[in-house]
Amino acid sequence: MNFPKFPPLDFDLEKPAYRALAVSLISTVAFFVYKSNRRASRLKAIQATNANAVSTYFAPSASKSNVTVPVAIFLGGTAGIGRGMAEAFARYTNGNAHIIILGRNEANAKAIISTFPKPTVHGARHEFVQCDATLMAECERVLQDLRARLPRINYLVISPMLVKTFGEEKTTEGKEPKLVLMYYARFKFIKELTGALEKAKEQGEEAKVYIVGGAGLGKSIDWDDLGFRKKGYSFLKIRAQFPLYMTVILQEFAARSPSLTFIDSYPGPVRSALGDNLRWMVARFLYKVLFSATFPFSYSESGEYMLHAMLTTAKTPGVWNVGMYGSTLPISKIYQASEKERKILWEHSVEETSIQ
Q: Which UniProt keywords apply (predicted)?
Protein backbone atom coordinates (compact mmCIF):
# COMPACT_ATOMS: atom_id res chain seq x y z
CA MET A 1 0.00 0.00 0.00
CA ASN A 2 1.36 3.36 -0.98
CA PHE A 3 0.82 6.11 1.55
CA PRO A 4 0.76 9.70 0.39
CA LYS A 5 3.91 11.63 1.02
CA PHE A 6 3.70 14.89 2.87
CA PRO A 7 6.27 17.61 2.59
CA PRO A 8 8.59 17.83 5.59
CA LEU A 9 7.50 20.25 8.27
CA ASP A 10 9.68 23.28 8.31
CA PHE A 11 10.03 24.61 11.86
CA ASP A 12 12.59 27.28 11.21
CA LEU A 13 13.15 29.10 14.50
CA GLU A 14 14.72 31.90 12.52
CA LYS A 15 11.25 32.77 11.31
CA PRO A 16 9.48 35.18 13.72
CA ALA A 17 6.19 33.25 13.73
CA TYR A 18 7.81 29.94 14.68
CA ARG A 19 10.07 31.62 17.20
CA ALA A 20 7.05 33.25 18.86
CA LEU A 21 5.25 29.90 18.94
CA ALA A 22 8.25 28.18 20.55
CA VAL A 23 8.58 30.92 23.16
CA SER A 24 4.86 30.67 23.90
CA LEU A 25 5.00 26.89 24.36
CA ILE A 26 8.08 27.07 26.57
CA SER A 27 6.52 29.83 28.66
CA THR A 28 3.32 27.84 29.10
CA VAL A 29 5.18 24.72 30.21
CA ALA A 30 7.37 26.75 32.55
CA PHE A 31 4.31 28.42 34.07
CA PHE A 32 2.59 25.12 34.81
CA VAL A 33 5.80 23.63 36.23
CA TYR A 34 6.19 26.68 38.46
CA LYS A 35 2.57 26.49 39.60
CA SER A 36 2.86 22.77 40.25
CA ASN A 37 6.05 23.15 42.28
CA ARG A 38 4.62 26.06 44.24
CA ARG A 39 1.43 24.12 44.94
CA ALA A 40 3.41 21.07 46.09
CA SER A 41 5.59 23.24 48.32
CA ARG A 42 2.56 24.93 49.88
CA LEU A 43 0.87 21.58 50.52
CA LYS A 44 4.01 20.14 52.10
CA ALA A 45 4.21 23.08 54.49
CA ILE A 46 0.55 22.69 55.44
CA GLN A 47 1.02 18.96 56.07
CA ALA A 48 3.93 19.70 58.40
CA THR A 49 1.84 22.26 60.25
CA ASN A 50 -1.04 19.81 60.62
CA ALA A 51 1.23 17.09 61.95
CA ASN A 52 2.73 19.48 64.49
CA ALA A 53 -0.66 20.82 65.58
CA VAL A 54 -2.03 17.35 66.29
CA SER A 55 1.09 16.03 68.01
CA THR A 56 1.41 19.14 70.18
CA TYR A 57 -2.19 19.23 71.34
CA PHE A 58 -2.80 15.54 71.95
CA ALA A 59 0.62 14.49 73.26
CA PRO A 60 1.21 13.97 77.01
CA SER A 61 2.52 17.02 78.87
CA ALA A 62 3.49 18.08 82.37
CA SER A 63 -0.16 18.88 83.13
CA LYS A 64 -1.57 15.66 81.68
CA SER A 65 0.20 12.33 82.02
CA ASN A 66 -2.08 10.48 79.61
CA VAL A 67 -2.65 10.96 75.92
CA THR A 68 -5.94 12.71 75.22
CA VAL A 69 -7.98 10.69 72.74
CA PRO A 70 -9.86 13.20 70.57
CA VAL A 71 -13.41 12.47 69.50
CA ALA A 72 -14.12 13.53 65.92
CA ILE A 73 -17.35 13.09 63.98
CA PHE A 74 -17.42 13.38 60.19
CA LEU A 75 -20.93 13.74 58.78
CA GLY A 76 -20.48 13.14 55.05
CA GLY A 77 -17.09 11.54 55.58
CA THR A 78 -17.51 8.77 53.02
CA ALA A 79 -16.53 10.99 50.08
CA GLY A 80 -15.15 14.35 49.08
CA ILE A 81 -13.59 16.86 51.45
CA GLY A 82 -15.06 15.20 54.53
CA ARG A 83 -13.24 12.02 53.55
CA GLY A 84 -10.02 13.95 52.95
CA MET A 85 -10.22 15.54 56.40
CA ALA A 86 -11.02 12.23 58.10
CA GLU A 87 -8.11 10.45 56.43
CA ALA A 88 -5.67 13.24 57.28
CA PHE A 89 -6.88 13.42 60.88
CA ALA A 90 -6.48 9.66 61.32
CA ARG A 91 -3.00 9.80 59.84
CA TYR A 92 -1.74 12.66 62.01
CA THR A 93 -3.15 11.13 65.19
CA ASN A 94 -1.55 7.80 64.22
CA GLY A 95 -5.00 6.29 64.53
CA ASN A 96 -5.21 7.21 68.20
CA ALA A 97 -8.55 8.96 68.04
CA HIS A 98 -12.21 8.06 68.28
CA ILE A 99 -13.30 8.74 64.72
CA ILE A 100 -16.93 8.32 63.70
CA ILE A 101 -17.87 8.52 60.03
CA LEU A 102 -21.54 9.17 59.34
CA GLY A 103 -22.95 8.62 55.87
CA ARG A 104 -24.96 6.52 53.47
CA ASN A 105 -22.27 4.35 51.89
CA GLU A 106 -21.15 1.64 54.29
CA ALA A 107 -18.79 0.01 51.78
CA ASN A 108 -16.95 3.27 51.17
CA ALA A 109 -16.72 3.98 54.89
CA LYS A 110 -15.28 0.57 55.72
CA ALA A 111 -12.75 0.87 52.90
CA ILE A 112 -11.67 4.27 54.21
CA ILE A 113 -11.43 3.12 57.81
CA SER A 114 -9.35 0.11 56.76
CA THR A 115 -6.60 2.52 55.65
CA PHE A 116 -6.42 4.29 59.03
CA PRO A 117 -3.44 3.51 61.28
CA LYS A 118 -4.45 0.99 63.93
CA PRO A 119 -5.07 2.51 67.41
CA THR A 120 -2.50 1.85 70.11
CA VAL A 121 -4.07 3.64 73.10
CA HIS A 122 -7.12 2.93 75.21
CA GLY A 123 -10.30 4.62 74.04
CA ALA A 124 -9.23 5.08 70.43
CA ARG A 125 -11.47 3.44 67.84
CA HIS A 126 -12.82 4.01 64.34
CA GLU A 127 -16.43 3.34 63.40
CA PHE A 128 -19.09 3.91 60.80
CA VAL A 129 -22.68 4.85 61.60
CA GLN A 130 -25.27 4.59 58.84
CA CYS A 131 -27.12 7.87 58.40
CA ASP A 132 -29.31 9.16 55.60
CA ALA A 133 -29.12 12.82 56.58
CA THR A 134 -31.87 13.80 54.13
CA LEU A 135 -34.39 12.45 56.66
CA MET A 136 -34.98 14.23 59.96
CA ALA A 137 -36.15 11.01 61.62
CA GLU A 138 -32.90 9.32 60.61
CA CYS A 139 -30.87 12.26 61.91
CA GLU A 140 -32.77 12.08 65.21
CA ARG A 141 -32.08 8.34 65.55
CA VAL A 142 -28.36 8.81 65.03
CA LEU A 143 -28.19 11.86 67.29
CA GLN A 144 -29.89 10.00 70.14
CA ASP A 145 -27.30 7.25 69.81
CA LEU A 146 -24.38 9.71 69.77
CA ARG A 147 -25.66 11.71 72.74
CA ALA A 148 -26.17 8.54 74.76
CA ARG A 149 -22.61 7.28 74.39
CA LEU A 150 -20.43 10.34 73.80
CA PRO A 151 -19.98 12.51 76.88
CA ARG A 152 -17.69 14.84 74.94
CA ILE A 153 -16.94 15.74 71.31
CA ASN A 154 -13.88 17.66 70.14
CA TYR A 155 -14.56 18.05 66.43
CA LEU A 156 -17.78 17.99 64.46
CA VAL A 157 -17.08 18.13 60.72
CA ILE A 158 -20.15 18.52 58.51
CA SER A 159 -19.98 18.16 54.72
CA PRO A 160 -22.88 16.04 53.36
CA MET A 161 -24.17 16.70 49.86
CA LEU A 162 -26.04 14.71 47.22
CA VAL A 163 -27.18 16.09 43.88
CA LYS A 164 -29.20 13.82 41.60
CA THR A 165 -30.98 16.56 39.70
CA PHE A 166 -31.07 20.34 39.76
CA GLY A 167 -34.87 20.22 39.84
CA GLU A 168 -37.01 19.92 42.93
CA GLU A 169 -37.27 16.56 44.69
CA LYS A 170 -39.11 15.38 47.79
CA THR A 171 -38.09 12.94 50.50
CA THR A 172 -40.60 10.64 52.20
CA GLU A 173 -40.91 13.42 54.79
CA GLY A 174 -41.91 15.91 52.11
CA LYS A 175 -38.68 17.91 52.23
CA GLU A 176 -36.31 18.89 49.42
CA PRO A 177 -33.18 16.74 50.00
CA LYS A 178 -30.66 19.31 48.72
CA LEU A 179 -32.03 21.91 51.12
CA VAL A 180 -31.84 19.41 53.97
CA LEU A 181 -28.23 18.42 53.28
CA MET A 182 -27.04 21.97 52.63
CA TYR A 183 -28.61 23.45 55.74
CA TYR A 184 -31.28 21.77 57.86
CA ALA A 185 -29.41 18.55 58.72
CA ARG A 186 -26.33 20.64 59.48
CA PHE A 187 -28.32 22.85 61.83
CA LYS A 188 -29.83 19.85 63.60
CA PHE A 189 -26.49 18.11 64.19
CA ILE A 190 -24.87 21.25 65.57
CA LYS A 191 -27.82 22.07 67.81
CA GLU A 192 -28.18 18.57 69.22
CA LEU A 193 -24.46 17.99 69.83
CA THR A 194 -23.67 21.39 71.34
CA GLY A 195 -23.82 19.93 74.86
CA ALA A 196 -21.10 17.35 74.15
CA LEU A 197 -18.93 20.00 72.49
CA GLU A 198 -19.31 22.31 75.50
CA LYS A 199 -18.38 19.42 77.79
CA ALA A 200 -15.07 19.00 75.97
CA LYS A 201 -14.39 22.71 76.32
CA GLU A 202 -15.13 22.57 80.04
CA GLN A 203 -12.43 19.92 80.35
CA GLY A 204 -9.88 22.21 78.71
CA GLU A 205 -10.01 20.47 75.34
CA GLU A 206 -10.68 21.69 71.84
CA ALA A 207 -14.32 21.99 70.78
CA LYS A 208 -14.92 23.01 67.18
CA VAL A 209 -17.60 22.74 64.51
CA TYR A 210 -16.39 22.72 60.92
CA ILE A 211 -18.72 23.34 57.97
CA VAL A 212 -17.69 22.55 54.40
CA GLY A 213 -19.92 25.02 52.58
CA GLY A 214 -19.95 28.41 50.92
CA ALA A 215 -18.41 30.95 53.27
CA GLY A 216 -18.47 34.39 51.71
CA LEU A 217 -20.94 33.35 49.00
CA GLY A 218 -24.63 34.07 48.62
CA LYS A 219 -26.44 37.28 47.72
CA SER A 220 -29.34 37.77 50.12
CA ILE A 221 -32.02 35.94 52.09
CA ASP A 222 -35.70 36.29 51.32
CA TRP A 223 -36.91 36.60 54.90
CA ASP A 224 -40.54 36.34 53.79
CA ASP A 225 -39.97 32.95 52.18
CA LEU A 226 -37.57 30.93 54.30
CA GLY A 227 -37.27 27.41 52.94
CA PHE A 228 -38.95 28.44 49.67
CA ARG A 229 -42.40 27.45 50.89
CA LYS A 230 -44.31 30.37 49.36
CA LYS A 231 -42.62 31.42 46.14
CA GLY A 232 -41.37 28.08 44.93
CA TYR A 233 -38.07 26.24 44.58
CA SER A 234 -35.20 26.72 42.16
CA PHE A 235 -31.59 25.60 42.27
CA LEU A 236 -30.49 29.18 41.62
CA LYS A 237 -32.29 30.24 44.79
CA ILE A 238 -30.32 27.64 46.72
CA ARG A 239 -27.03 28.98 45.41
CA ALA A 240 -28.03 32.58 46.07
CA GLN A 241 -29.45 32.15 49.57
CA PHE A 242 -28.40 28.99 51.40
CA PRO A 243 -24.74 29.92 51.95
CA LEU A 244 -26.08 32.91 53.89
CA TYR A 245 -28.38 30.68 55.94
CA MET A 246 -25.29 28.98 57.33
CA THR A 247 -23.45 32.28 57.81
CA VAL A 248 -26.32 33.72 59.85
CA ILE A 249 -27.05 30.63 61.93
CA LEU A 250 -23.40 30.13 62.89
CA GLN A 251 -23.40 33.66 64.24
CA GLU A 252 -26.42 32.71 66.35
CA PHE A 253 -24.76 29.49 67.54
CA ALA A 254 -21.69 31.50 68.57
CA ALA A 255 -23.88 33.92 70.53
CA ARG A 256 -25.57 31.01 72.33
CA SER A 257 -22.36 29.05 72.95
CA PRO A 258 -19.57 31.63 73.31
CA SER A 259 -16.98 29.05 74.38
CA LEU A 260 -17.16 27.10 71.12
CA THR A 261 -15.42 27.65 67.78
CA PHE A 262 -17.42 27.56 64.54
CA ILE A 263 -15.69 27.46 61.15
CA ASP A 264 -17.49 28.06 57.86
CA SER A 265 -15.38 27.32 54.80
CA TYR A 266 -15.39 27.79 51.07
CA PRO A 267 -13.00 25.13 49.70
CA GLY A 268 -13.39 26.14 46.06
CA PRO A 269 -13.67 23.61 43.21
CA VAL A 270 -12.61 20.14 44.32
CA ARG A 271 -12.46 16.88 42.40
CA SER A 272 -14.91 14.60 44.16
CA ALA A 273 -17.71 12.13 43.49
CA LEU A 274 -20.39 14.83 43.80
CA GLY A 275 -21.30 14.68 40.11
CA ASP A 276 -21.44 10.87 40.01
CA ASN A 277 -25.01 10.86 41.29
CA LEU A 278 -26.45 13.10 38.56
CA ARG A 279 -29.20 11.21 36.76
CA TRP A 280 -28.26 12.36 33.26
CA MET A 281 -25.18 10.79 31.68
CA VAL A 282 -24.45 13.97 29.70
CA ALA A 283 -24.56 16.03 32.89
CA ARG A 284 -22.14 13.63 34.62
CA PHE A 285 -19.77 13.83 31.66
CA LEU A 286 -19.86 17.64 31.49
CA TYR A 287 -19.34 17.86 35.25
CA LYS A 288 -16.20 15.73 35.10
CA VAL A 289 -14.82 17.60 32.06
CA LEU A 290 -15.45 20.97 33.69
CA PHE A 291 -13.77 20.07 36.95
CA SER A 292 -10.81 18.41 35.22
CA ALA A 293 -10.27 21.43 32.99
CA THR A 294 -10.26 23.90 35.88
CA PHE A 295 -7.41 22.09 37.69
CA PRO A 296 -9.15 21.97 41.08
CA PHE A 297 -7.77 20.35 44.20
CA SER A 298 -8.16 16.66 44.82
CA TYR A 299 -10.36 15.86 47.82
CA SER A 300 -7.31 14.78 49.82
CA GLU A 301 -5.40 17.98 49.04
CA SER A 302 -8.38 20.12 49.98
CA GLY A 303 -8.83 18.02 53.11
CA GLU A 304 -5.35 19.02 54.25
CA TYR A 305 -6.10 22.73 53.86
CA MET A 306 -9.47 22.42 55.57
CA LEU A 307 -7.91 20.46 58.45
CA HIS A 308 -5.32 23.23 58.74
CA ALA A 309 -8.13 25.76 59.10
CA MET A 310 -9.77 23.71 61.84
CA LEU A 311 -6.62 22.94 63.82
CA THR A 312 -4.55 26.09 63.34
CA THR A 313 -6.36 29.01 61.73
CA ALA A 314 -9.37 29.02 64.05
CA LYS A 315 -7.53 29.55 67.31
CA THR A 316 -10.20 31.18 69.47
CA PRO A 317 -13.94 30.80 70.11
CA GLY A 318 -16.40 32.51 67.79
CA VAL A 319 -17.11 32.29 64.07
CA TRP A 320 -14.30 31.89 61.55
CA ASN A 321 -14.71 32.08 57.78
CA VAL A 322 -11.98 30.51 55.67
CA GLY A 323 -11.14 30.06 51.99
CA MET A 324 -9.66 27.31 49.86
CA TYR A 325 -6.22 27.39 51.49
CA GLY A 326 -7.61 27.42 55.02
CA SER A 327 -6.85 31.11 55.62
CA THR A 328 -9.36 33.63 56.93
CA LEU A 329 -11.55 35.46 54.45
CA PRO A 330 -11.77 39.28 54.53
CA ILE A 331 -14.44 40.41 56.98
CA SER A 332 -15.92 42.56 54.21
CA LYS A 333 -17.02 39.37 52.40
CA ILE A 334 -19.05 38.07 55.35
CA TYR A 335 -22.63 39.13 56.00
CA GLN A 336 -23.20 40.34 59.56
CA ALA A 337 -26.74 39.48 60.61
CA SER A 338 -28.79 41.45 63.09
CA GLU A 339 -30.04 39.86 66.30
CA LYS A 340 -33.57 39.91 64.87
CA GLU A 341 -32.48 38.09 61.70
CA ARG A 342 -30.64 35.47 63.71
CA LYS A 343 -33.70 34.88 65.89
CA ILE A 344 -36.04 34.57 62.88
CA LEU A 345 -33.78 32.00 61.20
CA TRP A 346 -33.30 30.08 64.45
CA GLU A 347 -37.04 29.72 65.00
CA HIS A 348 -37.57 28.67 61.38
CA SER A 349 -34.76 26.10 61.61
CA VAL A 350 -36.06 24.58 64.85
CA GLU A 351 -39.51 24.22 63.31
CA GLU A 352 -38.20 22.63 60.10
CA THR A 353 -35.99 20.11 61.89
CA SER A 354 -38.43 19.04 64.60
CA ILE A 355 -39.83 15.52 64.43
CA GLN A 356 -43.61 15.64 64.15
A: Oxidoreductase
115-150 burial by CB neighbour count: b if 16+ within 10 A, else e?
ebeebeeeebebebbebbbbbbebbebbbeebeeeb
Selection from 148, 89, 101 nearest residue 127 by Cα: 101
Within the chain, where are the H helices?
16-58, 80-92, 106-114, 136-149, 177-179, 185-202, 235-256, 281-293, 299-308, 339-353
- Segments making up each domain of the chain, as ranges: 67-353
pLDDT digits over 224-265, tens only?
A: 999 988 888 887 888 889 899 999 999 999 999 999 999 999
Residue 127: closest CA among 72, 70, 207, 51: 72
CATH assignment of 67-353, given 3.40.50.300, 3.30.1490.10, 3.40.50.720, 2.60.120.650? 3.40.50.720
pTM, two decimals, is: 0.84
